[in-house]
Amino acid sequence: MEEVPLASEGDGYFAALAPAARVGTLYRYRLGASTSCFPDPASRAQPFGPHGPSQVVDPDAFVWTDQSWGGISVEGQVLYELHVGTFTPEGTWRAAMDHLQPLVDIGMTTIEMMPVAEFSGRFGWGYDGVDLFAPTHLYGTPDDLRRFVDRAHGLGLGVILDVVYNHLGPDGNYLGQFSRSYFTTRYKNEWGDAINFDDRAAAVREFVSSNAGYWIDEFHFDGLRLDATQQIFDESQPHILADVAARARSAAGRRSVIIVAENEPQDVRVLRPPKESGFGLDAMWNDDFHHATKVALTGRREAYYTDYFGTPQEFVSCAKHGFLYQGQMYSWQRHRRGTLTTGFSPDRFVIFLDNHDQVANAASGLGARVHQQTGPGLYRTVTAMWLLSPGTPMFFQGQEFAASSPFMYFADHDGELGAAVQAGRAIFMSQFRSAATRPLVEELPDPRDWSTFTRCKLDHAERAQRVQAVALHRDLLRLRRELTSVTQPRSLDGAVISDRAFALRWFGTSDRLLVVNLGAELILSSVPQPLLAPPTPAGWMILWSSEDAVYGGAGTAPIETDEGWRIPGQAAVLLAPRDV
Hints:
This protein is of the alpha/beta class. It has two domains: 392 residues, TIM Barrel; 94 residues, Golgi alpha-mannosidase II (Immunoglobulin-like, Sandwich). It is built from 17 helices and 28 strands. It has an eight-stranded parallel β-barrel with strand order 7-8-11-14-15-16-19-20, surrounded by four helices. A five-stranded antiparallel beta sheet has the order 21-22-23-28-25. A hairpin with a 5-residue loop joins strand 22 and strand 23. The longest helix has 18 residues.
């Protein structure tokens, strides 16, 4: 074993040249007079996990084939959230590459990969990463990740990476051994000590912002999704999120990248440019849309769904304005929620029916997907409303073929930490009244159990078996691409027809009317609503229906007749002007 002393460069940095180091060389740091050795907190590889030695890799050895790839912009994207460990039985980047073509065929445009920074244990969601620069050894080598991105670009797919800059995991986190400056107790963080960005924190800011650029530069990612930005605390200027965005764009060079934020308070400051005291990000998740649709699909108004009704007006408002809460009082949190979205285009708000959090929290923590919590007709109806609405749609893995596998919370922690995680999960789920009425702790899947993890793996054979679900999503995404007016906010208007039905209309070169009925069949002898007026004397014709037999529906009779309107129950119908 060779020891190489490090010389101080000032400001807490130390460096040395290690002539014997080669690709594959393992190394650790010994700090001061301590006999303990620690992995490199900025290592590019941890082949034995976060507690093992770091490894020298050559980031320039991989031969890329995506030289003509120009990156992505937020306009026109269809995102697909993917967890590498459960996307395939093998749970590796190499295995995942073989299943990208079907996503392209259906209409996905960009993968949103859940976090891959090295974390402890045999499995996990990735949000407890501790080595921010090291792709986890569980999914393969760093070059396997490069192969995945390169293959995706060859198929025309973008790839953005979910990164966590609000906390680090508790197991394998050695940053505190190197400096006390990385963390702070000045702010209350939901997951442990907050990262210090504003108290003599220049080196900490450099560590995090350079990480953002690293993924774009060395792995050719097309952007980032920033986890729980409301838990990133910084009172200095510029805000660390603005630094992260600037570093990512600089690292991309000629390529364009997108940066998406999760922000529970729905603060559009993250979207404003830095010159307007914003952070300069491109898009943010729209939880309001999800919560309203979840209530419409299940009827349950509990926990953080309490302030939603699943009504037609909510969906009209989402289509026209993005967020439902833009400063009103929010009873669940007992304070105001949201900010004004005026001036922001709809594609800057990511809308979804499922994501990793919401599936894991569904059905009292048992991981049921939304199509398993409601009837098929109502699910098809809401799916049509979702994919034909303004906003950037995001799928959760397996949703495109109505996967039967659950997605539960899993984290492989031992001892007291594992027990605390299990107890914390039970406390979190107890906010749902339906969950609190049963012996919650005994029935919740144990996050530490290997079977909890393996049950969540997708069975891609179901794609060929569930042809109706595949056809539904494929056809709706095709319609979305072809009917450009559907996603143009300037031409959109909407109206409530009844307590369970509404209409969205796009004016312009392709005048279209989407009629959505969440309830029973609606018979109207008169329709005093100008948005339903046809642009030609010949009236409307059906262009597409969620009740088409190819999707498992019962068929759709004419909507507009000489006797009035007859709108089928639990159906969405897209109408076009009939030729004169």
